[in-house]
Design goal:
Largest sheet: 3 strands, parallel
Shape: flat
Distance between the termini: 12 Å
Structural class: mainly alpha
Order of helices and strands: EHEHEH
Radius of gyration: 14 Å
Strand content: 5-15%
Number of strands: 3
Strand order of the largest sheet: 1-2-3
Helix content: 40-55%
C-alpha cells in the first residue's frame, strides 16, 4: 500500500510542531487501521516530489519509527527526489524518475 499525501501542501501551517504531531498520529492510526484489514501488507508513506517540508518528513519518519517500535516492521517512509523540470509541478520526466524510485523501493522490501 503506497500513501502519498502532502505533496502540494506547502504553506505556513506546515511549520508548526502541532502539524508534525498531528501528521504523526494520523499516519500511525491510518497504518494500524489498514493493517487490521490487510495484516500482511507493507505500507509505504511517500512524499517529496514537489519539494519537501521538513515538518512533513519529520511527521512521517516519527510515525514509522513509532510503529516499528511497536513491532510493525512492515511500514516504511520513502522520500522522493525533488522535481527538476515542470515549472512548479512535476514534469513527465520527474514522474518517470520517481516511478522508478518507487518501483525499486518496493522491490527492495518484497
Amino acid at each position: 500500500i503506497v500513501i502519498n499525501l502532502g505533496t502540494n501542501d506547502n504553506n505556513s501551517s506546515l511549520g508548526t510542531d502541532a502539524f508534525t504531531a498531528a501528521l504523526k498520529e494520523g499516519a500511525i492510526k491510518w497504518a494500524k487501521d489498514l493493517l487490521i484489514y490487510n495484516p500482511n501488507a507493507k505500507i509505504v508513506f511517500s512524499y517529496g516530489m514537489m519539494g519537501a517540508s521538513n515538518r512533513v518528513v519529520a511527521g512521517y519518519e516519527q510515525a514509522v519509527t513509532a510503529l516499528k517500535g511497536e513491532g510493525y516492521n512492515n511500514v516504511y517512509f520513502l522520500k522522493y527526489t525533488n522535481q527538476t523540470n515542470g515549472g512548479g509541478h512535476p514534469s513527465k520526466a520527474d514522474h518517470i524518475t520517481n516511478g522508478k524510485v518507487l518501483a525499486n523501493f518496493i522491490s527492495s522490501i518484497l
